[in-house]
Each structure stands twice: as structure tokens, then as C-alpha cells.
Design a protein that fits this description.
Length: 294
């Protein structure tokens, strides 16, 4: 019996070889392009890493791209002596964590009423929520600051938490209501025929199906809230109530700048969100690909 022959080589041997050669070249080009993009994306992290462990003299003599002549933790020590990092970390974690969970929960309740409950004037409600998400923060800061003063929450992390919970919940409601508008009605009708009320349908039918989408919103809300600067800068005055981004900006003096200390502070500000993102990476991937799988 003759040996098995590849269908491409049995019909057009020269053409198939040319095709395979072109395919291999395209794969190598795609690999090189991906590697170049990865280098560009990792370059800021590289600069933070190498400059965080340098001395000021080493940075001035060799520039930002070189490796440290002597690896030292002096920049981290100066930063920890300047600010109360554990308090800043606690404030940022509390604000970001509470905001992300509360915003997703509030958005799910509102989207359930709009997408499945079919409330009256639902399109106007979605339009109003969308408008609230695109308004610049500068237009909202004065009424928000006045309201915080009126209720006694000025200079409190809970004022910032409430503000970002409402703002993120508006965006989350817009996203989730769009998804729930196409939710299979058969599942809802089957649950109703089994005697489930609205709350049971939400908890046992809708929420499990929407869990990947809610997980994606949770990760995004946490990172967005962590990096917020303008509203926390206005609302949080004392160092004991401020967040890490505000303390990071305070390191930049008017006439002087300690680059190594700023790099160390930026690295310590980046690490918590990076660890959070890596921890929820699988959840984020599942949430993004859930729609494609369906």
C-alpha cells in the first residue's frame, strides 16, 4: 500500500509548499509584532522597577534606562517615611472594594427592573443613566461637595464611596439592562410556572446567568475607583482620609522632584491593582468570552 500523502502536496506540490512557506512567514511576523507590542507595554513597568531600586546619584549619572549599580531600598524607605502607606492602602481598598460590590448589586437590581420588569418609560430611564455617565466630573463636584457638607460626610471616605457607587451603578445599569433586554423569556416563564416570585427569579435564574458579566463590571469598577483622582482630591482633605493616588501626586514638589522616590511610590500604588487583576484574570476572561460561547 502506498504511504498517505497530504492532499495539498498530492494535487499541487509546488503551490502547497509556497502556501505553507507564506503561512510560516505570516506566523513569524505575527509573533514578532506581538513581541514588539509586549515590549512597549512592559517598558513603563521596567522603568518603575529599575528606578525604584536606584539612588538619586545613580539615576543622575546613568539615566532612567540603565540597571542600578547597587540595588537599594532607600527610595521605598523615604516614601514610607513621608506618608502613612498602610492607612492610604486601607482607604483605597475600602473605597474601591465597597464601591465595586455595591455598584454591581445596585446596577443588577435596577437593570432587572428595566430589562425584565419592563418599567414605564424605560428608554428615558436608560437615556438618563447614560447621560449621567458621560457628564464630566467637574460639572458634578460643586453639588456633590455641598451635599457632603450638608450631611456631615465631608472629608470622609464614605462620601467618595457613595458618589462612585452611584456613578458606576448608572453605567452598570445601562450595560446590564441592555443584556437583560435579550434575556430568554422561556426561562422566566418556566420559573413563574414553578411558583417562583420575582426575587427568586432574580437570585436563582437571572443572577447565575449574568454572573460573568457582573464579574467583569466588578473588576472594572474596582480599578476605575482605585485610579480616581479629581473627586477624592476635593472631598478628602486630611492625609488620614486620602487615597494612594492623592498621596502620589503630593510627592511632586513645585521646584524639586525625587524621581526614584516617585518611581517607588508608583510601583507600590500599582502592585495592589495588578495583584487584584491577576487574581480575577480567569473570571475576567470567562466574562468577556461568555457572550461568544452562547
Amino acid at each position: 500500500m502506498s504511504a498517505a500523502v497530504h492532499p495539498l502536496t498530492s494535487v499541487h506540490p509546488r503551490g502547497s509548499r509556497t502556501f505553507l512557506a507564506r503561512l510560516a512567514v505570516q506566523r513569524w511576523l505575527a509573533l514578532l509584532l506581538a513581541a514588539a507590542i509586549a515590549v512597549v507595554m512592559l517598558m513603563p513597568i521596567y522603568l518603575l522597577m529599575v528606578n525604584s531600586f536606584k539612588t538619586g546619584a545613580d539615576y543622575s549619572a546613568n539615566g532612567p534606562l540603565s540597571l542600578p549599580e547597587e540595588w537599594t531600598l532607600s527610595a521605598f524607605q523615604r516614601y514610607l517615611e513621608t506618608v502613612d502607606y498602610p492607612q492610604l492602602l486601607w482607604n483605597s481598598v475600602v473605597i474601591s472594594g465597597v464601591t465595586s460590590f455595591c455598584a454591581v448589586a445596585l446596577a443588577m437590581l435596577a437593570a432587572y427592573a428595566i430589562g425584565i420588569g419592563r418599567v414605564k418609560a424605560r428608554m428615558w430611564v436608560v437615556f438618563l443613566l447614560l447621560t449621567a455617565t458621560i457628564l464630566p466630573q467637574e460639572t458634578l463636584i460643586y453639588p456633590l461637595f455641598t451635599a457632603a457638607q450638608a450631611v456631615g460626610l465631608q472629608n470622609s471616605i464614605w462620601s467618595v464611596t457613595i458618589i462612585f457607587t452611584v456613578l458606576h451603578a448608572a453605567f452598570g445599569t445601562y450595560i446590564l439592562s441592555s443584556v437583560l433586554g435579550t434575556f430568554p423569556k422561556e426561562l422566566i416563564e418556566a420559573a413563574r410556572m414553578d411558583g417562583a416570585n420575582r426575587w427568586t427569579i432574580l437570585v436563582r435564574v437571572v443572577a447565575p446567568v449574568m454572573r460573568p458579566t457582573m464579574a467583569v463590571l466588578l473588576v472594572f469598577f474596582f480599578v476605575w475607583t482605585w485610579n480616581e483622582f479629581f473627586i477624592p482630591m476635593i472631598m478628602l482633605i486630611t492625609p488620614s482620609s486620602q487615597t494612594i493616588p492623592i498621596a502620589l501626586a503630593a510627592l511632586q514638589g513645585q521646584n524639586t522632584l525625587d524621581v526614584t522616590q516617585l518611581a517607588a511610590a508608583s510601583l507600590m500604588s500599582l502592585l495592589p491593582t495588578l495583584l487584584f487583576f491577576l487574581f480575577f484574570q480567569r473570571t475576567l476572561t470567562r466574562g468577556v468570552t461568555a457572550g461568544a460561547v452562547k
